């Protein structure tokens, strides 16, 4: 039960982090295209911060 709660909390925090990172990057004129959907939420929830960084790394790769 504790593990499921941990993943759920990371999903919520990862979604909030994606929202704010997308807002900050868009104000800077950079659109990486990391959307908030089930796949990205689960990736950040299961993998945590490394998963979030991987999503933005993939977005940066596609941006360039």
Topology, element by element:
Layout: H1 2-27, H2 38-47, H3 49-63
Helix pairs in contact: 1-2, 2-3
The quaternary organization reads as single chain
Helical amount among residues, as a percent range? over 70%
Runs in which pLDDT lies below 50 for 5 or more consecutive residues are: none
Q: What is the helix tally? A: 3
Q: What's the overall average pLDDT, rounded?
A: 93
How would you portray this structure in words?
The chain is mainly α. Helices cover 80% and strands 0% of the residues. It has three helices and no strands. Helix 1 (2-27) crosses helix 2 (38-47) and helix 2 (38-47) packs across helix 3.
Properties at a glance:
0% strand, single chain, 64 residues, mainly alpha, 80% helix, elongated
Short recap of the structure:
This protein is mainly α. The protein is built from 3 helices and no strands. The protein has helices at about 1-25, 40-45, 50-64.
């Amino acid at each position: 039960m504790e593990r499921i709660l941990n993943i759920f909390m990371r999903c919520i925090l990862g979604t909030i982090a994606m929202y704010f990172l997308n807002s900050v990057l868009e104000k800077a004129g950079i659109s990486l295209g990391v959307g908030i959907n089930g796949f990205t939420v689960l990736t950040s929830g299961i993998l945590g911060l490394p998963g979030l960084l991987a999503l933005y790394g993939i977005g940066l790769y596609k941006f360039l």
